[in-house]
Amino acid sequence: xxxxxxxxxxxxxxxxxDAPVAAPPSAPVATPVAAPVVAQVPAVPAPVATRTxxxxxxGWMNRLKTGLKKxxxxxxxxxxxxxxxxxxxxxxxxxLLMADTGIPxxxxxLQDLKDRVWRTSAxxxxxxxxxxxxxxxxxxxxxxxxxxxxxxxxxxxMVAGVNGAGKTTSIGKLTKHLANSNCSVLLAAADTFRAAxxxxxxxWADRNLVEIVSQEGGDPGAVSFDAVNAGRARGKDVVLVDxxxxxxxxxxxxxxxxxxxxxxxxxxxxxxHEVVLVIDGNTGQNALSQVQAxxxxxxxxxxxxTKLDGTAKGGVLxxxxxxxxxxxGGPVPVYFIGVGEKLxxxxxxxxxxxxxxxxx
Length: 360
Hints:
The protein is an alpha/beta fold. It folds into three domains: 1-42, no CATH class; 67-142, Four Helix Bundle (Hemerythrin (Met), subunit A) (Up-down Bundle), CATH 1.20.120; 148-350, 3-Layer(aba) Sandwich (Rossmann fold). Helix content is 51%, strand content 11%. It has helices at residues 9-22, 30-40, 55-67, 69-77, 86-98, 103-120, 125-140, 167-180, 197-208, 220-233, 251-267, 285-298, 316-326, 351-359, and strands spanning 155-160, 185-190, 211-213, 238-243, 274-280, 302-306, 334-338, 346-348. The chain has an eight-stranded mixed sheet, with helices on both faces. Helix 6 crosses helix 7, helix 8 packs parallel to helix 9 and helix 10 (220-233) runs parallel beside helix 11 (251-267). The chain starts with 8 loop residues before the first helix and ends with a helix.
């Protein structure tokens, strides 16, 4: 299910007409994307119940539950043989904080939960836990928004992240998603400082049968500039720019990212159309600090959260959501979450699915 992908009508119409002339091999692109995908878009915010009819999504849900088991274990344990009293809420507060939900989100969730319990007259641990799922889902819902492709041709997506967060691997998986939706992709190997980064991205390009622009030891800005121009000349739908990993505390390195963004804008006055940060779910509250720092430097438009499997800190998405509620311009959406190394272990983010997998 690729409900993350939505092509705007103004862009999709000319694409259908031009495809046979500009790029015969990609002629099937517009046909499966324009009609079926747009039809799926309303299903994105739908309750999880509507998704379970899709076997692939059911499989993803099972992997998500397994991946979040370590995070949710402490929260779920609170409800074992519990009484509905102040002690339950105190234990739940501790469990949420241990999951790195953060104080603002924990306070909000607990107050909302108490209100729901009172309104629904919930008297059993199972009933209270069901209401907790709804409270967490409500906090996370502002993060649920699909990645849009098609308003601009090509759509230029600049991807940032610290080394080790899974940035290049996530780009490869995202490329697979796009390619499966018959979307033509060009990769830009602008991570020219990390050893073997160019080679790693080239492997993903070969796997997904997509083109790549790279220069051994080249300037990342120059690679990005060339890639955007090549994407336009070749009629690509998407240009994915893999930028060098950066620590937000190293200001001179962050300045290099700003330079790449400026160069991309020189190549296309409307680009980059997306600035996506890849964060490691294992880092907990540090992930929130990264989001804040990169957002201040680059103006983030979306997130990819990786390595949620095996972590006890998956509640950080709630912390990110509450921070986003106070952010000028609104929350930064989570486009994808990952719970493993396989291609199918990166999927679109659904607030209710995540809350249900976390709380049980």
